[in-house]
# Entry
Amino acid sequence: PQALRELLTQHQTKQRPAVPFATAPTVALLATAIEQKKLSIVLQPKMDIHSQRIVCAEVLSRWNDPELGSIPPDTFIPLAESHGLMQALTACVLDQALQWFVGSPLFAYGSFAINLSTSCLVDVHLADRIEAACLNLGVAPQKLILEVTESTAMDRTADCFDTLTRLRLKGFRLSVDDFGTGYSSLAQLARMPLSEIKIDKSFVMKLQSSADALKIVDATIRMAKGMGLTSVAEGVENAEVLNTLKSLGCSLAQGYFISRPLPAAQFDTWLKEYRAA
Ligand code: C2E
Ligand code: CA
Ligand code: CA
Ligand code: CA
# Structure
C-alpha cells in the first residue's frame, strides 16, 4: 500500500517522463488504471477438436492508456508483477470476467479460464476470495479453469502448492500453461492436482517445419491422455496444424485460426454466429 501510494502521488504530480516508457511513470499509470478499473478483458475460444464445439474461453487482460496507447501484456504483466500489483490486477480481471460470463451464451454450456501468476498464489486467502467471487454471482467452481505457467505450477514454495491444492479441493480446475518451456519432471507433474496441459505455442507453431516439435507435441498429448488430463494446443494459426493435432489425438485447440482474442460483446456475437453456422 505504501509503494502504491508513492506511485500514485508520483503520478498526481504529473512528472513528465523523459522517455515515453520510463518505468516509474508507467508503473504509476498502471496502478491508477488498475485502481480505476480501466484495464479491460478480451476472450479467446478453446475448441474441442473432435466435436468442433467451443467449450471454454480464456480471459486475457488489455491495457489501453489514453497517452501511452495500447501496452502489450508481455510488458505490463511483468511490470505489475515486480511492483506488487498482480493481486489487484487479478481481482479486476476476475470481476470483469465473471460479469461477462454470467451474461454470455457460454455460461449455459461452457467454462472460462483466467491466468494466475506466482505472486497471486502466495496469497493464502486467494482460494477463498476466488470462491466467494464466483459463488456471489452463482458461478459454480467447475466453470472456472485457473491457468498457471509450468514454472509456477512446479514452484515448491509451500504457499503456492497449498493455494493450488485448496483451489482444486473447492472444485476449480487447474491448467499448466506454456507446457514444455519449464523443467518439470514427470514425478512433479503427477503430484499436481491438474486437469489440463496447455502445450506452448512455440511448439505448436513449428509443427509443420520441425520434426522435433512434432515429437514433443505428440509425446505431450500421449502423456496427458495417460494421466487422464485434457490436452490443449495454443497458437493454432492454420488448418494444417489443426489437422495434425486432430490426428495426434489432441483434445482442444486455441489460436488465431479459430479466433483472435475478442472484447466481450464481440466474442458473444462471434459465438452465436459460430454455433449457427
Ligand atoms: P498466455 O497465457 O500463454 O496467453 C496466450 C497468448 O498467445 C496471448 O497473448 C494470445 O493473444 C496469444 N495467442 C493466441 N492465439 C495465438 C496464435 O494463434 N498465434 C500467436 N502468435 N499468438 C496467439 P497476450 O494476450 O498478448 O498475452 C500474453 C501473456 O500475458 C499471456 O500468455 C499471459 O502469460 C499474460 N497475461 C495476459 N493476461 C493476463 C492476466 O490477466 N493475468 C496474468 N497473470 N497473465 C496474463
Ligand atoms: Ca494462459
Ligand atoms: Ca500459454
Ligand atoms: Ca505465454
